Amino acid sequence: MNFSEVFKLSNQLCKFSPNGKYLASCVQYRLVIRDVSSLQILQLYTCLDQIQHVEWSADSMFILCAMYKRGLVQVWSLEQPDWHCKIDEGSAGLVSSCWSPDGRHILNTTEFHQHTGAYTLERLMGGISYNGGAGWEQHMTEWAQDGSST
C-alpha cells in the first residue's frame, strides 16, 4: 500500500470535485488544486483572506471560496486559470454561499438572512452580473430540471 506525503489543511477544508478528478484543499488563504490520481499540484490560488468555505460547481469547472469574516467570495476557473472574480457583500456581511445546480449561479446570504443575492457567471463576457435581491429568498430552492432558476 502506498501513501502520499502529508499536506496541511485549514479548518478541515478538503473536497473532491464532483467529477472525481480533482482535490481542493485550503491552507489559510491558499487554495490548492491537485490531480486525484497523482496528488500533483495543478493550480495554486491566493485568496484575499483565510478561506472558511470551499465548494465546487456541479461540472467541476469552477470553485468558490468564501471568506465570511470579510463578506467576500472568490471564484476560480480550472479551465482558464487566469480568470477569477470577486463578490463583495460589503457591510451586509456573509453567512452562506453556494452554487446553483447548473454551476453558473451563486447564491449569497447576508447576515441575519436580510438578503439573498444571486450572481450569474458570464464567463464569455469575462464578468459576473447581479440578479438578486427581493424575491429570490422565496424561490431559492426552486430549480428547473436543467438546473436553471425558475
TrEMBL record:
Superkingdom in the source lineage: Eukaryota
Entries under Gene3D superfamilies matching the protein: YVTN repeat-like/Quinoprotein amine dehydrogenase
Name of the protein: WRAP73
Lineage per the UniProt record: Eukaryota, Metazoa, Chordata, Craniata, Vertebrata
InterPro entries to which the protein is assigned, alphabetical: Centrosome-WD_assoc, WD40/YVTN_repeat-like_dom_sf
Organism: Ranitomeya imitator (mimic poison frog)
